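Structure request: Starch-binding associating with outer membrane, Flagellimonas flava.
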Amino acid sequence: MLLAFLGVLITSCSSELDQPELNNNFAGGTDFSKTDDMIFSLIGVYQSVTSRGWEQPLVVSTRGDDVNAAGDQQGLINQDRYVYDNSFFGSRTFWETYYGDIITAHTGMEQIERYQEFADEDGVALGNQYIAEMKVLRAVLLFHLSQVYGAVFIPTSSDLNEFANVTSVPTKDEVMQHISDQMDEALPFLPDMRPNERTDLPGGVTRYTALMIKAVANQELKNYQAVADAAGQIITSGKFSLFNDYYELFKTPGKLSDESLFEFQYSDFGQGEGDRVGHLYNPYGPNSWDPSIAGSGSGWGFFEPTIKFVEFMLDREENVRLETSVFFSQRGIDSLIASTPYTEATLPAFVSPTTRDGDTNTADVRSIFSSGKHYLPTNQLIPGRTGYGSNKHYIVFRYAETLLVYAEALLQGASQTAISADDAVNIVRSRAGQDPLSGVNLDQLVDEKYAELSMEWGKRFFDMVRLERYDELSFGGRTFTPDRTFVTYHQDQIDEFPILGDIVNN
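Returned structure:
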């Protein structure tokens, strides 16, 4: 239903949505007395937040010992090696589009407030929910921006004039505290259900999305009791469970599962032609392959799991999660054999260029592996849709991460607010076919997050930075130092806001 709104309603009302954003006023002809139209403003914000350019998730994700930047995108390659290029187009569009969408969220909130002037009591309450949803969507973007850049601006309205004479830039800690506070403001107005339980907008934001964002923001602050409190509420709700099949979680069967706390939704609407809402997954795929469905498009080979990660998983006998996370090529397998103790005879049978769904990775340039979490089997494509990964959702937050950040908070000294750390970790391990642990320690927890969350939004990199485990990030010829934590602002942003240059220089 949400995707139907995106594909149909936005087309009909895009001029009304665009007018306030472009002109920073409400003189675009919108009749705010038509309070039933209030949902259009909300859908417009969902559309903006999910309409990510292909390079933007890579700017967030392509650092750490779980993933390499591959192919010919030198800006990504430099970033992966902690050599930051302030002329890289990806960092410019990441900054500009994320802030553009944050301003769109503020525009939407201001439009809702105008509708509320004409609404009855029920309409006002619904408007409060919509505003709360927009705060959560805005927080997702601001969270990623601050993870990448550290100190970033915090818009408080759609009025761009507030940035005309900025004299300071909030620090990362200030941004994360702001996000946490915003979630506290939003929580009382959000539906008390899983995202997939919503019937008005299936997959839309709920109170548990906000609690998850509050948890990870406080994790960045190392405020571990707040992490345990927020994540504990998700756990004790009893509403969430892990999807039974880790391999299919990241594919069509896993869309909007009971594990999902928030995902960017995309669809071909079950039709081989016509309207679609999609994301460009080509960067994650092999640049050549032999698909089981002839004519299915290949990828670009810009993003590959590392040999370090593959060896780590093999050493742990991680069959379920390794098969899911890595789409092997023969070139990658040969590289693995040449650089590790593993031989063709000792590798598990699933370490093969051909997946269980019959797609064969034939890449012999650019990447040695591809990301299995961003791979959609061609037998799951809608007939007539040939684009790599077409119809695939993009998971942002899921319950397995909730369990692991909760367990880490307890191991960092927080008081238990739900289950034990052992129980939280073992729920995740059980799905992966791993034996339960007793007396889990922080090292084991860190390894569990590596196995479970790699290739997902740079979570491994940000964990290693927060925990100051810098040696893990110095591998494969890279040398990480704490001053390499944040990506350099693009020169265009420095030119527009010279104060950003002062931060870089300091």
